[in-house]
Amino acid sequence: MEIEVDGERFSVTERGCGTYDASWLTGPNPGYGFSVSGRTHGEGVGYAARRLGDQELVDQIRSFLAQVDPVTGFME
């Protein structure tokens, strides 16, 4: 799926349950992006995977963009 956040477009694919790869389509560095997991830890049950909702993905993208150096286009 494609998601637009603050004028930037990302291709987001789910790689296994609850793990997502986001490629920055409009960024200055082809193929650059990040991965995020919806894994949570529950006491006594270890780690469990959960799917992220659309708003959670938008929030993750915003967080990524906030860490990008505007000069290099890479995370600081």
What is shown here, in short?
The longest helix is centred in the C-terminal third of the chain and has 13 residues, at 54-66.
Sum up the structure in keywords.
single chain, 76 residues, alpha+beta, four-stranded antiparallel sheet, two-stranded antiparallel sheet, 1 helix, 6 strands, elongated
Question: In words, what does this structure look like?
Answer:
By secondary structure, the protein is of the alpha+beta class. The longest helix is centred in the last third of the chain and has 13 residues. The strands form two sheets. The chain has a four-stranded antiparallel beta sheet with strand order 1-2-3-4. The protein has a two-stranded antiparallel ribbon with strand order 5-6. Strand 1 and strand 2 form a beta hairpin. Helix content is 17%, strand content 37%. The chain has one domain. The chain has one helix and six strands; from the N terminus they run ββββββα.
